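ok, trying the design again with the full structure, not the truncated one.
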């Protein structure tokens, strides 16, 4: 699964899945970004000590200005291979607009920006969620989700989530999946691909926080998982590595579930 030595850009690079992705790409030049420059610096320093070719820059992914700085930073480093977009928040932030803006609007901003760098064999891998698969298709909110920067998009989707930030999270992650379909032809014209990955319960700090807040619910999901365990960041990182490689050269505009099979049982429970 040869990947040419071009830049691998990882958002949320200081997070659990982001760092696991960085380790999966140890033989390749990495650009890590996260909201906090201190966390970026710490992660870059630790990986550099382990022999990684890595650099980093802080980026507020909801800011077009910050994203342009990131694009310039990547351009100065060399040729672009892949965007691995792991940055985001969960419903635990208890803020519908924040979930919508960070998890969906920012995703489209990044996809649009990195399209400028995309060339043949470039790849964008977006992190969705298994919970996106629990949201049924609907012409009204799907049209809003696939156009998150529209002025009325947030208000339309909000009508369907019962003022629940966890439900909003599920909806916007469906929107992430829809963005791969929306952009497939555009990226394909450059010979580039765009896909999403939908993790299940992965033992990251975000998931551990959710487990503390909803212990019974999280244990129930674990027991409903056919593989009878939660996922590890490496379970997701290995799939993402495959999706950026030449072995996945004919895979685009689709979503890959990495959930231990649990989402089908969740649907039965609900």
């Amino acid at each position: 699964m040869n990947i040419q030595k071009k830049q691998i850009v990882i958002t949320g690079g200081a997070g659990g899945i982001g760092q696991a992705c960085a380790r999966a790409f140890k033989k390749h030049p990495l650009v890590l970004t996260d909201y906090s420059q201190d966390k970026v610096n710490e992660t870059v320093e630790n990986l550099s000590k382990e022999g990684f070719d890595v650099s980093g820059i802080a980026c507020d992914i909801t800011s077009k200005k910050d994203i342009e700085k990131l694009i310039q930073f990547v351009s100065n480093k060399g040729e672009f291979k892949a965007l691995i977009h792991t940055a985001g928040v969960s419903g635990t932030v208890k803020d519908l607009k924040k979930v919508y803006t960070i998890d969906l609007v920012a995703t489209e901003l990044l996809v649009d920006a990195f399209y400028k760098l995309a060339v043949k064999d470039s790849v964008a891998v977006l992190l969705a969620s298994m919970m996106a698969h629990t949201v049924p298709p609907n012409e009204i909110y799907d049209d809003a989700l696939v156009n998150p920067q529209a002025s009325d998009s947030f208000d339309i989707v909000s009508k369907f989530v019962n003022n629940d930030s966890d439900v909003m999270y599920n909806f916007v992650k469906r929107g992430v999946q829809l963005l791969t379909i929306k952009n497939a032809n555009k990226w394909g014209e450059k010979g580039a691909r765009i896909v999403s990955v939908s993790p299940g319960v992965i033992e990251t700090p975000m998931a551990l926080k959710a487990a503390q807040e909803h212990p019974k619910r999280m244990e129930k999901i674990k027991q409903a998982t056919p593989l009878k365990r939660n996922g590890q960041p490496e379970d997701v990182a290995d799939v993402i590595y495959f999706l950026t490689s030449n072995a996945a050269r004919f895979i685009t505009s689709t979503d890959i579930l990495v959930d231990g099979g649990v989402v089908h049982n969740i649907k039965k429970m609900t």
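Keeping the full-length input from now on. The first helix runs from residue 16 to 24.
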